[in-house]
Recover the amino acids of this structure.
């Protein structure tokens, strides 16, 4: 096996190709050979590097230097300087620019931030996701070998339980316990489902895991299957995640070829295989029972619970449903042990958490940090402070389904329990940071618009409640609200939370509640004074017509 | 048994019962919209919420299974507030202008629930957004403005009818009930069974025939039995001021669990045939009104003159829509009393062949079958409700094997569709059963069967395999497979596979039992007596009778046959008569009088009795005993 010391990625999107990416790629291979480096350096084309301003681009790892635009005639210089002599070829470095949260961005920050800790993202950006060898070199499939040959299924579950791993799909349910529920079921076949539907606006952590390190998730699923006694796995991937699907499919094929999937894995007698299923664009299909309905070929509507998937899941059989990030923690825990894992994060929420940072900060993107850091830290350290020096007003956690966290809670540790105590939730890990110029009513309206669009329409409180709430919020942002509307919103949020059939309708109530609890004065200003304190609602034109 | 309390009342129910059903049994009404006893719980409307001690959140009682020691409250302030919230949401969702609705005033479950909560107005304004009205269907209209998206209709069309016409489009507030891939109902795959209309809790589905003609409280409901075919579905006949308003399926009926097909539900209300209300006698070439005595005397006289004569005597035909009492009299009068060699019924021959060894398979077997073998019957066209039981089970993996040389819409749905050469069904069935049993040297082998029937050997083998592996296989044998019936009977006994025989008309079973089971032909007879009742005579019947010198017809409606009759004796129609029907299972059911017949019209039995009296023939009333049923399922 090769010991790769550096990896070179060439942007292969259509625009890059039009500008000579293929030639650059070929020249790179030639030059690397010429310098005799072909055994220690890998070169690959990737579809999208996340920016399109200096194409074609070449990214060199582990330093994660981004070069661009690179012309074929620059290649010799680049290889000589960077790969042979080990100096950054400054002349070719791409202009500095705010990067979106892609693989390149991640790697660029590796080790540069004080509290960042990589467990889930350990290999993301460092290895070529299309090469199973690179995964193996970095410790891949070691955990699977250990689990299958040295541990009983029960011991695997025990290790995960001891590690205190909790679901990263939003609810924070203890993963070991979930597995135990499935393991103790007698009926077979059982199933493992990896929930990669990730449809929360602004959340893209699962995508980066799948795109950057698909084998990690595959390995985790096989371990899960072994632990609970399942021989079949499904990855339900968001339909738009084409690259993730392609990488997964390729990785699955490679794993099969190498014997990590299929019959008699590691000679243990254990069989496991995985099917990739692409979703069709409904947010609600991320809800585990709707996901299962959809997998079964039905309309994606959440089921009645109980019974839960752990006893009556796919095709009515016992099923584990775990989020991508949850699963991505599993191989590391098996490899290093529960105690090691508990060294990160807090007592009740061990490990790390992935956050996607968005909004009015200077740096947006994805981070992996130990559980329990605070919003203030996120903003100042990872976000590099608020944009234009504006004041932090509130953060929307967990895509849409999280809470609106007011600035007053910015020093509350971000872990499942502390947040729950403060009456807010972590959600899926998106952090939309809003400054003083963001209107809370407008924010709530935008969120509600998402929910009303994504409600599956099965149950009354959610289907109608989101629609009515959106109507009222729109009215308020236009200066046509009344104080009775506040009461209605109160009732709506209470009704939706108490009576909805699934987490979507219940979550839709949360932003409303946060708004009324923490920002009531601001909402009332819209109604009583026809003024939007943040200055973002279209009030002025309305003011004249309604104030009388 | 589970013991728990609802509102302080001790309740005992079998395990698996939901709290809602348990409350119903205890006489405690919990408002609900999406739940229906015949459908699987859905938990969509959220109106049925209750409070349970020890559970912090409100629970939907329609999905919550009762557990020992549970303490449930259905009427706490918290529950009432939540209920009002759900109703407020529903009223605000679309346009519920009750005063214009045909269900308003008791029939609408949404309105009644709101009254139950003392709601007097819309706490939130209605949508004011107009929703479409689909008026493309001949029998009903779907007004989306009144739909509460409970999906009862969708679930009924799928779970009960197995037709899967209705569906849901889009999501959230854009959710709409649609037919097929969103086509107008009138152009859809709908088979006009009306189950969706019957099950809709609001005024969204409007029955074209009965809208505004009477609320449930304003009509009289008479439980009775459908006389459309031998399935014998239980019905509720709704009448008002002696007019038929509509026919509903009886949810309590053991045969059909509330389902009806187009024949049972809509044909009666669409009936536009001309009624005959006085006896008629042909004078000077045309039919003229007469008295009952004149007409009966004339018929009796004629019959008497031909009594005991064989092939040039009397041909007598009775409709299997007549009650068993009348059929029994008919048999005594014509076959025994007058010695007619051609005394038979319209569908008796169909039933004869399928009442195997005097036994009849029960429809219940069809509801739980995991493999159904249909022979010679298009259950999509005839005996439709039996077809519903088959079609609705297919998504659960029930295997369907169709053996029919002719056209059969089930072929399309079948896992195995076999089209043997005509006249070889018997051989095919024998071959298949032999193969499924393993080697039986007395039976033909697969190759021989294949050669004889034209069905390829692999298919025969596969079908045999499926039957052998099935836990609850059922044969359904129709008229098209009459030749195979006996073979089936034999084999079914040895395999212990139930056989359900589909016997044509409503009382075919009884007719066959009374020996009225020949195919009707006229060949030199000097008189014909046709007890048609309210039946539509076969198309060629009038032609068949063209050369018979004297034709007497006992009928309710004008038809080509009454047109050529010499005497017409007017009788009651299905909704007017009283009597019994024996369905294909041998189940004896009572038809009850829902409408008073017009003056001058007599019952079928009365007419036959009056004739018998004039002919000096004694009739006994042992119709039930003569059926020879070991046990009577009523
Ligand atoms: C409306 C809705 C959407 C959801 N979407 C996702 C999703 O995209 N990905 C996910 O992992 N979990 C999602 N969940 C949570 C899942 O239902 C489920 O709890 C999770 O997959 C369990 O995995 P975990 O225990 O590993 O967190 C969603 C839940 C709701 C109510
Ligand atoms: S809460 Fe919303 S998404 Fe969930 S079942 Fe109800 S309508 Fe569907
Ligand atoms: S009438 Fe019957 S088949 Fe037609 S849509 Fe309604 S339930 Fe379905
Ligand atoms: S049409 Fe009637 S039964 Fe169907 S969803 Fe609407 S209200 Fe319910
Ligand atoms: S009746 Fe229970 S949720 Fe509709």
């Amino acid at each position: 096996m090769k010991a790769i010391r550096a990896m070179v990625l060439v942007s292969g999107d259509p625009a890059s190709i039009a500008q000579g990416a293929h030639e650059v790629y070929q020249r790179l291979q030639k030059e690397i050979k010429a310098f005799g480096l072909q055994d220690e350096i890998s070169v690959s084309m990737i579809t999208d590097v996340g920016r399109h301003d200096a194409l074609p681009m070449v990214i060199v790892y582990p330093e994660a230097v981004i070069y661009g635009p690179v012309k074929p005639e620059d290649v010799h210089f680049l290889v000589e300087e960077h790969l042979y002599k080990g100096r950054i070829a400054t002349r070719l470095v791409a202009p500095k620019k705010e990067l979106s949260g892609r693989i390149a961005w991640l790697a660029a920050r590796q080790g540069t931030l004080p509290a960042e800790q990589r467990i889930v993202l350990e290999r993301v950006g460092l290895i070529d996701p299309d090469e199973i060898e690179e995964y193996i070199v970095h410790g891949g499939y070691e955990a699977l070998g250990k689990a299958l040959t040295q541990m009983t299924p029960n011991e695997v579950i025990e290790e995960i339980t001891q590690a205190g791993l909790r679901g990263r799909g939003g609810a924070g349910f203890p993963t070991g316990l979930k597995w135990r529920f499935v393991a103790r079921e007698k009926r077979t076949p059982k199933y493992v489902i990896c929930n990669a539907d990730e449809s929360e606006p602004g959340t893209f952590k699962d995508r980066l895991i799948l795109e950057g390190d698909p084998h990690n998730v595959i390995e985790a699923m096989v371990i899960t299957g072994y632990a609970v006694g399942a021989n079949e796995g499904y990855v339900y991937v968001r339909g738009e995640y084409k690259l993730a699907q392609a990488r997964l499919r390729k990785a699955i094929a490679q794993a099969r070829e190498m014997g990590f999937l299929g019959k008699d894995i590691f000679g243990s007698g254990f069989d496991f295989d995985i099917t990739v299923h692409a979703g069709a664009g409904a947010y609600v299909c991320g809800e585990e029972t709707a996901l299962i309905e959809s997998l079964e070929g039905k309309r994606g509507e959440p089921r009645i619970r109980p019974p839960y998937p752990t006893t009556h899941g796919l095709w009515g059989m016992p099923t584990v449903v775990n989020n991508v990030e949850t699963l991505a923690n599993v191989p590391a825990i098996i490899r290093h042990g529960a105690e090691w894992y508990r060294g990160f994060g807090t007592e009740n929420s061990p490990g790390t958490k992935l956050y996607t940072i968005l909004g009015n900060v200077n740096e947006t993107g994805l981070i992996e940090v130990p559980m329990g850091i605070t919003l203030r830290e996120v903003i100042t350290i990872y976000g590099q402070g608020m944009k234009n020096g504006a004041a932090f007003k509130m953060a929307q956690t967990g895509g849409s389904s999280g809470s609106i966290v007011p600035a007053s809670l910015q020093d509350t540790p971000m872990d499942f329990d502390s947040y729950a105590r403060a009456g807010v939730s972590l959600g899926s890990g998106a952090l939309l940071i809003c400054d003083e110029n963001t209107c809370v009513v407008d924010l709530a309206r935008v969120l509600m618009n998402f929910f009303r669009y994504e409600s599956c329409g099965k149950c009354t409180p959610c289907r109608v409640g989101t629609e009515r709430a959106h109507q009222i919020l729109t009215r308020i942002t236009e200066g046509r609200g009344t104080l009775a509307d506040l009461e209605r919103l109160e009732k709506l949020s209470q009704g939706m939370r108490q009576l909805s059939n699934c987490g979507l309708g219940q979550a839709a109530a949360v932003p409303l509640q946060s708004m009324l609890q923490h920002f009531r004065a601001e909402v009332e200003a819209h109604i009583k004074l026809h003024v939007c304190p943040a200055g973002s609602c279209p009030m002025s034109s309305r003011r004249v017509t309604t104030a009388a | 048994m589970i013991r728990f309390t609802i509102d302080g009342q001790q309740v005992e129910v079998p395990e698996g019962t939901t709290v809602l059903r348990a409350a119903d049994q205890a006489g405690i009404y919990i408002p609900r919209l999406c739940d229906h006893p015949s459908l699987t719980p859905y938990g969509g409307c959220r109106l049925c919420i209750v409070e349970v001690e020890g559970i912090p959140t409100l629970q939907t009682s329609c999905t919550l299974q009762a557990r020992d020691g549970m303490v449930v409250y259905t009427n706490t302030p918290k529950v009432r507030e939540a209920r009002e919230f759900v109703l407020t949401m529903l009223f605000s969702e679309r346009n519920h202008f009750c005063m214009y609705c045909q269900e308003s005033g008791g029939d609408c479950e949404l309105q009644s629930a709101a009254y139950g909560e003392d709601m007097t107005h819309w706490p939130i304004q209605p949508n004011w957004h107009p929703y479409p009205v689909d008026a493309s269907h001949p029998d009903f209209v779907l007004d989306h403005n009144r739909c509460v998206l409970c999906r009862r209709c969708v679930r009924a069309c799928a779970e009960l009818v197995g037709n899967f016409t209705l569906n849901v489009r889009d999501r959230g507030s854009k959710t709409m009930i649609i037919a097929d891939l969103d086509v107008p109902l009138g152009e859809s795959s709908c088979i006009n069974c009306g189950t969706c209309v019957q099950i809709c809790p609001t005024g969204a589905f409007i029955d074209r025939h009965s809208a505004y003609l009477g609320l449930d409280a304003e009509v009289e409901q008479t439980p009775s039995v459908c006389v459309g075919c031998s399935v014998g579905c239980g019905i509720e006949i709704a009448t008002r001021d002696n007019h038929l308003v509509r026919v509903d399926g009886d949810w309590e009926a053991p045969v059909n669990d509330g389902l009806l097909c187009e024949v049972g539900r809509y044909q009666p209300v669409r009936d536009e045939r001309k009624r005959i209300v006085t006896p008629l006698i042909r004078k000077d070439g045309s039919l003229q009104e007469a008295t009952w005595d004149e007409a009966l005397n004339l018929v009796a006289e004629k019959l008497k003159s031909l009594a005991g004569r064989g092939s040039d005597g009397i041909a007598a035909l009775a409709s299997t829509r007549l009650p068993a009492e009348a059929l029994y009299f008919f048999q005594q009068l014509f076959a025994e009393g007058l010695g007619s060699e051609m005394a038979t019924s319209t569908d008796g021959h169909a039933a004869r062949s399928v009442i195997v060894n005097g036994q009849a398979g029960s429809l219940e077997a069809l509801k739980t079958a995991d493999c159904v073998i249909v022979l010679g019957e298009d259950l999509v066209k005839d005996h439709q409700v039996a077809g519903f039981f088959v079609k609705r089970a297919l998504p659960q993996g029930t295997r369907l094997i169709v053996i029919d040389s002719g056209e059969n819409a089930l072929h399309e749905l079948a896992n195995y569709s076999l089209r043997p050469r005509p006249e070889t069904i018997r051989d095919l069935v024998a071959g298949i059963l032999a193969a499924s049993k393993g080697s039986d040297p007395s039976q033909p082998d697969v190759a021989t069967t294949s050669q004889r029937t034209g069905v390829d050997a692999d298919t025969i083998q596969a079908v045999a395999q499926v039957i052998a592996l099935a836990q609850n296989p059922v044969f359904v044998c129709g008229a098209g497979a009459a030749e195979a019936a006996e073979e089936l009977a034999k084999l079914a006994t040895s395999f212990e596979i139930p056989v359900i025989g589909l016997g044509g008309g409503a009382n075919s079973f009884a007719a066959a039992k009374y020996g009225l089971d020949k195919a009707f032909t006229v060949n030199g007879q000097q008189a014909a007596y046709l007890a048609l009742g309210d039946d539509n005579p076969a198309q060629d019947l009038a032609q068949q009778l063209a050369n018979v010198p004297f034709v007497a017809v006992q009928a309710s409606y004008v038809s080509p046959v009454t047109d050529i009759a010499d005497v017409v004796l007017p009788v009651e129609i299905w909704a007017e008569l009283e009597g019994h029907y024996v369905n294909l299972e041998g189940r004896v059911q009572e038809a009850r009088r829902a409408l008073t017949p017009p003056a001058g019209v007599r019952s079928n039995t009365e007419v036959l009795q009056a004739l018998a009296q004039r002919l000096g023939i004694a009739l006994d009333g042992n119709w039930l005993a003569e059926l020879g049923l070991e046990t009577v399922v009523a």
Remarks:
- The two ends of chain B are 29 Å apart (CA to CA).
- The interface with chain A takes residues 41-47, 49, 57-58, 60, 63, 82, 85-86, 89-90, 92-93, 124, 148-149, 168, 170-175 of chain B (CB under 8 Å).
- Residues A 167-171, 173, 195, 197-199, 284, 286-288, 321-323, 326, 502-504 surround flavin mononucleotide (ligand 1) (CB under 6 Å).
